[in-house]
Design brief:
The chain is α/β, with parallel strands linked by helices and 590 residues long. It has 23 helices and 16 strands. It has helices spanning 37-65, 68-81, 84-97, 101-116, 122-143, 172-177, 196-204, 215-218, 240-261, 285-293, 305-310, 317-330, 369-372, 374-387, 403-423, 440-444, 446-450, 460-468, 486-502, 516-524, 537-544, 549-561, 565-579, and strands at residues 2-3, 5-8, 11-19, 163-167, 185-188, 208-210, 224-228, 233-236, 277-282, 299-303, 336-339, 393-397, 432-437, 455-458, 506-508, 529-532. An eight-stranded mixed beta sheet has the order 1-8-7-3-4-5-6-2. The two termini are 15 Å apart.
């Protein structure tokens, strides 16, 4: 049994399918015959030419959308692709060892990594290594004849056995293309509760565990594996007795999920009739359709960064407009809140530059990028406004810290409306704008922000880590990022009180919204709009139907008096058992 970090609850017994990196440096693959060396050299040269053409096109597009600095990053990539020494090194290995071009490219990459590791300037090394991975990955993708990562997504058929993905990490581009794959569990070596693998797993309601170093070396395709997303346990090649016990738990989990989905047409109301809005956090069209099928009454958060992260270059206004419109129309008239670009931290796009920062989650990210790249944000704002002509759309600004920042983005929205009128383009005139509260400074000064915005959305994931001064993906301190801590509950209560007094609507769209114990306390504090992964909507609706408003308020009043997280968790766990014991299956405990 291996212990990792539980990021999506549930239990699954299945067969391993490993996703290998295109640049994975395993044993080199030999050519079948000497006479294949010449064609393999030509094949590599053709890939270099195509990679060069792609980069030239990207340079032109990025320069228009972002500016010269962003385009210069791809000019450096083009220089690497056309560097004669790269071609010479790969050719030499193909000829000397009679191996495939992909194997030779992987070996050259390993040589570069070894050389960079000797540099004294480690920051410089990390920047160059990231650029090298981009360049070599582009060439490698062409060599295997697919788009990046496509070869990793040809999920095998293991008959009736569920498939569990095992990978070093799940990349944004992979998470965007896994929507139609028959995947029942995810295990990764790196990542935390807000990693791409965690978001993917929760959006599909499948068990997931992260933080298992070297797991990809310990398993082979087809191995039997058990994933317990409640406690972060992973069991490799279990014995029959253990397998039987976990299969029973798996059946119980699936049975409960199937039973709960039957409530999708029911209203979300408490036992005494208090209505609640249960919205969905989504990344793409597939998630939008899942939200509707699970009974969500709208989208509380569309994460637009996944379009940017999976795009070969920078998506322009027309591409964004078509993408947002498709999702808006998939919601069939239900409201949808679109968050503007939230990159930085663990999510980066090369054309915005790779800045090595000591603490990237507290650095140059999210709405702060708008000040340096206004054209990029103007094109997104215009695209969102235009999508608003096709449905009930709101626009959400992440990581606003000061009133000055809010005024800046509000002026940008006004300017974009004026420019759309001037250009004669149709757009949604009633698109509301809101602020995401995820920085403690914004929470403390929320009264000032409330006077100059139309709604509030609480991003509890970031708010908790900033409040506790603890990186949620750092295993040494992630235990501090506890949603049910006295400090977090007090700050959330303060935000909810301020919104109630102002009369502005408020939604919580962090992972707390889908956690049964957290839901009880939030409902008791007066929150009436929750946004969560679509798969958890039926469970939370079921829990709501078993509790009265007065009960939840009593729970909240008692919890506010408690002094430690453990006391709060124990108290709410006991209340949860009394109300609905099944709901414990939907809690992650590690």
């Amino acid at each position: 049994m291996l212990q990792g970090v539980a990021v999506s609850p549930g239990v699954i017994v299945g067969r391993v399918y490993k996703i290998e990196s295109i640049l994975h440096t395993g044993d080199p693959v030999s050519l079948a015959a000497q006479e294949l060396v010449g064609p393999e050299l030509n094949r590599f040269d053709e890939s270099l030419v195509r990679a060069g053409y792609d980069l030239e096109s990207m340079i032109q597009k990025v320069e228009i959308q972002i500016g010269v600095d962003g385009a210069n990053i791809f000019r450096s990539h083009l220089g690497m692709v056309r560097d004669p020494s790269l071609r010479q090194k790969v050719h030499a290995l193909i000829q000397a060892q009679q191996i495939t071009a992909l194997s030779a490219l992987q070996m050259v990459m390993k040589q570069y990594v070894s050389r960079f590791e000797n540099f004294e300037q480690q920051d410089y090394f990390r920047e160059r290594l990231a650029d090298l991975r981009d360049v070599f990955g582009r060439i490698a993708s062409d060599l295997i004849g697919n788009n990046p990562n496509d070869s990793a997504l040809r999920v095998p058929d293991y008959g009736t056995e569920p498939i569990v993905i095992v990978a070093h990490e799940i990349l944004p581009s992979q998470s965007m293309t896994m929507g139609d794959k028959a995947i029942s569990g995810i295990v990764t070596e790196i990542g935390g509760g807000t990693s791409h693998s965690a978001i993917l797993a929760r959006s599909r309601g499948i068990p997931a565990v992260t933080g298992l170093a070297s797991i990809t070396q310990d398993v082979a395709n087809g191995d039997l594996i058990i994933v317990d997303g409640r406690d972060g346990h992973v069991l490799l090649r279990p014995d029959p007795e253990t397998t039987a016990a976990y299969r029973k738990l798996q059946r119980e989990f699936i049975h409960i999920k199937d039973r709960l989905v039957a409530n999708r047409e029911d209203p979300a109301v408490s036992t005494d009739g208090t209505p609640v809005e249960l919205l969905a956090n989504i990344n793409n069209v597939a998630d939008a359709k899942a939200a509707s099928s699970m009974g969500a009454t709208g989208v509380g958060l569309l994460r637009t960064e996944y379009l940017f992260l999976s795009h070969p270059d920078v998506p322009d206004e027309e591409e964004q407009y078509r993408y947002y419109r498709q999702i808006v129309e998939a919601m069939n008239g239900l409201p949808i809140t679109i968050r503007t670009l939230d990159v930085g931290g663990d999510k980066s796009v090369p054309y915005l530059g790779r800045r090595v920062e000591a603490n990237p989650f507290m650095g140059w990210r999210s709405i702060r990028l708008a000040f340096e790249h206004p054209k990029l944000f103007e094109s997104q704002i215009r695209a969102i406004l235009r999508a608003g002509a096709h449905g009930r759309v709101s626009m959400l600004f992440p990581m606003v810290t000061t009133l000055e920042e809010l005024r800046f983005v509000n002026r940008m929205v006004d300017a974009c409306r004026d420019s759309l009128i001037k250009d004669g383009l149709d757009f949604g005139h009633d698109v509301r704008t809101g602020v995401m509260i995820e920085v403690p400074a914004a929470a403390i000064c929320i009264d000032a922000l409330l006077r100059e915005t139309q709604f509030i959305s609480i991003g509890s994931n970031d708010l908790i880590q900033y409040l506790m001064a603890a990186d949620r993906d750092n295993s040494k301190v992630s235990h501090l990022c506890e949603p049910l801590s006295p400090a977090v509950i007090r700050v959330l209560g303060m935000i909810l009180d301020a919104c109630k007094k102002s009369g502005l609507p408020v939604t919580l769209c962090g992972e707390m919204a889908a956690q049964p114990r957290s839901f009880l306390i939030l409902f008791g504090l007066g929150l009436r709009k929750f946004s969560m992964s679509p798969a958890f909507v039926p469970a939370i609706k079921s829990l709501l139907s078993k509790v009265t408003t007065a009960q939840a308020e009593r729970f909240a009043h008692h919890v506010i008096q408690l002094k430690t997280s453990e006391e709060i968790k124990h108290y709410l766990s006991e209340r949860l058992k009394e109300i609905s014991a099944d709901m414990q299956l939907f809690e992650s405990n590690s």
